[in-house]
Amino acid sequence: MLASIYKKLLEEYDYQGWWPVLNNYHPRDYNTPNNINEVFEVCVGAILTQNTNWNNVMKALSNLVNAGFLSPEKIKDCNIRTLKKLITPAGYYNQKAGYLKNFTEFFIKKIGTPTREELLNIKGVGKETADSILLYAYKVPTFVVDAYTKRMLESLGVIKGSEDYDVVKDLIEKELPKDYKLFQEFHALIVEHAKHYYSKKPYGVNDFLNTGFLK
DNA sequence: TTCCAGGCAATAC
DNA sequence: GTATTGCATGGA
After folding, report:
1. Of chain A residues 151-170, which have a beta carbon within 7 Å of strand C?
2. Number of other residues whose CB lies within 10 A of the CB of residue A47
3. Could you tell me which residues come within 8 angstroms of residue A114 by beta carbon, excluding any fewer than 6 positions away?
4. Which residues have C-beta within 8 Å of that of residue A74, sequence separation ≥ 6?
5. N or C: which end of chain A has fewer CB within 10 A?
6. Residues with Cβ < 8 Å from A140, sequence gap 6 or more?
7. CA(A29)–C1'(B13) in Å?
8. Which residues contact A159 (CB under 8 A, 6 or more apart)?
């Protein structure tokens, strides 16, 4: 079921090349992020994009880059007010500035790939952000369940919609090869698809996935 | 003008 | 244990 959804979405939208680094998507390149700076950038983006559209996140990331602040050392040492100002376009900047400080402190100490547990212990990193960081920054095959994913799967009748995050995550992972490349593409494709069909109510109207092949 | 976005933590029930 | 609420900008 989920494999056929993935296949259909891939046919429709092609490879997405997530996670964007320096504003660039990179379809079929699964080596990105290539270095520690890019890894850090993906993590920062994952925190900034919480309940916020990517366009606003790009503005915040650009501000950080232009100010020379997109590095662990800078974010760790900078004045919190300065940080808030730079990330203002991403919204919730009072909270997110603190979240970035918390994450950066962890990032500087941590050697190698963090565990999900470690990430979840950081104030400001919840399940989706932790999984985004693992999947897109560290290439760990863990699936990212977002609001779009649940919305789409509910509309398609795959889930009820009231399931907990980890239940949906396990359900998806169970039915697919545990491959970080596939997980990256599938999540990105779901977001792309959902922007078309699951952003406005009523959800799922004219979704080509919902017109017969699943039923 | 209203609605929404690639959630999270704190609080209330 | 589950449901609500506050957080905020910028684009459609």
Report:
1. 162, 164
2. 23
3. A106, A133, A134, A138
4. A68
5. C
6. A113, A134, A180
7. 49
8. A150, A153, A168, A171
For chain A, the first-to-last Cα distance in angstroms comes to 10
Same domain, A169 and A181: yes
| Number of domains into which chain A is organized | 2
Q: Where are the beta strands (DSSP E) in A161-212?
A: none
In a domain, A23, yes or no: no
Q: Which residue bears the tokens 């919480």?
A: A50
Q: Are A49 and A94 members of one domain?
A: yes
Nucleotides of C under 7 A from a protein CB: 2-3, 6-11
Instruction: Give the number of other CB atoms < 10 A from CB of residue A11.
Output: 8
> In a structure prediction context, what are the per-residue pLDDT tens digits for chain A, which is 215 residues long?
999 999 999 999 999 999 999 999 999 999 999 999 999 999 999 999 999 999 999 999 999 999 999 999 999 999 999 999 999 999 999 999 999 999 999 999 999 999 999 999 999 999 999 999 999 999 999 999 999 999 999 999 999 999 999 999 999 999 999 999 999 999 999 999 999 999 999 999 999 998 765 54
Residue A167 structural domain = 1-18+141-215
A53: nt with nearest C1' to CA: B5
Nearest nt by C1' to A200 Cα: B4
Cα–Cα–Cα angle for A152, A155, A156, rounded to 5 degrees: 85
